[in-house]
Amino acid sequence: MIILPELGLTFDDVLLAPQHSDVESRRKLSTQTRLTPKISLQIPIVSANMDTVTESEMAIAMARAGGIGIIHRFMPIEQQVQQIARVKKAESFVVDEPITLTTDHTIGDARGLVEETGTGGIVIVDKTKHIVGIVTTRDLLFEGNESKPIGDVMQRKVFTAPPNTTLEQAEKILHEHRIEKLPLVDEQGRLVGLITLKDIMKIAQYPNATKDARGRLAVGAAVGVRGKELERVECLLKAGADCIVVDIAHGDSTLEIEMIREIRRRFPDAQIIGGNVATADGTRRLIDAGADAVKVGVGSGSICITRVVAGAGVPQLSAIIECSEAARAAKIPIIADGGVRQSGDAVKALAAGASAVMLGSLLAGTDESPGLMMTRKGHRYKVSQGMASLGANLARKRREGDAWITQEEIEEYVSEGVEAAVPYRGSVREVLMQLVGGIQSGMSYSGAHSIEELNAKAVFVRMTGAGLKESMAHDVEVL
Ligand code: XMP
Questions:
Q1: Pocket test for ligand 1, best of 348, 387, 432 (most atoms within 8 A of CB)
Q2: Going along 13-146, which residue ranges are E strands?
Q3: Cβ contacts of residue 220 below 8 Å, gap of 6+?
Q4: Tens-digit pLDDT profile for residues 352-364
Q5: How far apart are CA 83 and CA 101, in angstroms?
Q6: Which of 235, 243, 304, 323 is catalytic?
Q7: Which of 36, 82, 104, 327 could form a disulfide with 292 if both were Cys (CB 3.0 to 4.6 A apart)?
Q8: Which pLDDT score, from 0 to 100, does residue 468 have?
Q9: What pLDDT is stored for residue 464 in this prediction?
Q10: For ligand 1, is residue 55 a contact (CB within 6 Å)?
Q11: Cα of 218 to ligand 1 centre, how many Å?
Q12: In this structure, are residues 438 and 344 in contact, taking their beta carbons and an 8 Å threshold?
């Protein structure tokens, strides 16, 4: 038996002592960081792979804001693949399978399709997929005769471009010809895609978005370590997942290390995040196995009861400091996972050496999280449940088509997480704006112009319970 001499610290045990600062405008400070050596983020925030936090809608919002979401793994492989596909389609400026009609169709058919799909333009093709015209909502506007052939109103002159047209080239063509749709055709003149002005404008709305090399929103996916999980990895990578998070509660384990090694061997280019660990040795072992980033946090999450049930864990600030020191030598980023309740905690985690923070409950209360809203005593809430809770396991069974659980199974299940309600917080965008603003303020107090500099310049001061009390609003009635 060993008792470590150092006291384990967490966020509420410390403050960042203010340092001299030459920062003039906090809001202009860059919060750029690395999730893995190959994935860079404009904001150091990752949404947790929990079934009450990240599915496609959350991942889309996170990537648009400059962070990233990790789709949870508590669902069949096909469903997780669909989630990834939805993110990948959300902001692509090329529609891969454009909606088409032929000249056999009528104005009524075209109008029905516009209403059903919300598309603003339909490409008209012949039987061999060669373009013969295009119909936009404007062409249909004052047409009263629904049975009129589409060929009578379609525009016959159609500007097209090759399939590999870049965003800049497309913008130029759309502008020059004052058009809103640009069909893409292969060498034989067959329709293979469509670029629309509307999609391009959507892209301009999110200049900080995290994108892959093909201009699609970036997204991560969680996997486990057993059975079919290598097949899951293969399917997720094929679907376009930008990183794979090997996600188990006790990451410093033989199963996880073997899984990371095997993924590295089979998919040498994959970006692999391993976790969770809470010690320097554990961090090194995952890095040696091939991890490109390591997720840190055992028992730190808001819905975790691992420390109560198993008596295991390391207070989160100490865990981040220890693990990030171990990872620094290998130039591997650390993601601080769990326990971040407000922006000040995120600043402390980044100052302690994390490159990004992973958030669960803070994001579970937003519009974009999966799950229903509920009202209690006039206040609105959403659910946040630990992935090792009974609730999460029942939900997984349902997704896998098994709606039944026996009394025996319930009694045998040892929960390491709870089901909880979190206050409704509006959109992810609003929550992230407050968090990023707080992180920038924290950087300024440490005289830092970047997340890296924040870590280099940070000076932590430990405080007593009285210091913590003084840190909050006190001796006033908070309205
Ligand atoms: P926050 O504090 O942001 O934490 O809500 C999210 C992180 O908590 C972890 N997690 C769990 N840990 N039992 C645990 O011990 C659980 O059931 C559980 N569910 C989630 C996970 O690391 C997540 O990102």
A1: 387
A2: 14-16, 33-36, 39-41, 45-47, 68-71, 94-95, 100-101, 121-125, 131-136
A3: 35, 46, 49, 59, 68, 69, 70, 71, 241, 242, 243, 244, 245, 273
A4: 999 999 999 999 9
A5: 29
A6: 304
A7: 36
A8: 96
A9: 97
A10: no
A11: 22
A12: yes
Which pLDDT score, from 0 to 100, does residue 404 have?
Answer: 76
| Ligand 1 close to Cβ of residue 335 (< 6 A) | no
| Domains within the chain, CATH numbers bracketed | 11-90+209-464 (3.20.20.70), 100-205 (3.10.580.10)
pLDDT at residue 158 in the model: 93
For residue 297 and ligand 1, the question of a CB distance below 6 A is answered with yes
Under 8 Å between Cβ of 41 and 193: no
Mean pLDDT over residues 334-339, rounded?
A: 98
Distance CA 343, CA 443 (A): 11
| C-alpha distances out from residue 385 to 8, 52, 112, 395, 423, Å | 26, 6, 42, 10, 13
Q: What is the pLDDT of residue 386?
A: 94
What are the strands, taking DSSP E only, across 338-462?
Answer: 356-359, 373-376, 379-385, 419-423, 460-462
The closest-lying atom of ligand 1 relative to the alpha carbon of residue 306 is 15
Distance CA 84, CA 223 (A): 13
Residue among 303, 340, 415 to mutate when testing ligand 1 (max atoms within 8 A of CB): 303
CB of 339 closer than 6 angstroms to any ligand 1 atom: yes
Question: pTM here?
Answer: 0.89
Does residue 304 have its Cβ closer than 6 Å to ligand 1?
A: yes
Res 227 pLDDT > 80: no
The pLDDT-based confidence of 304 (bands split at 50, 70, 90) is very high
Instruction: Ligand 1 pocket test: pick from 10, 47, 50 the residue with the most ligand atoms within 8 Å of its Cβ.
Output: 50
What DSSP state is assigned to residue 330?
A: T
Kindly give the number of the ligand 1 atom that is closest to the alpha carbon of 276: 22
pLDDT in tens, 117-161: 777 889 999 989 899 999 988 888 888 888 999 999 999 999 999
pLDDT digits (tens, 9 = 90+) for 6-31: 999 999 999 999 999 999 999 999 99
The residue whose CA has the least distance to atom 24 of ligand 1 is 48
User: DSSP E strands: which ranges in 197-346?
Assistant: 220-223, 243-247, 272-277, 293-296, 334-337
CA of 337 to the centre of ligand 1 (A): 8
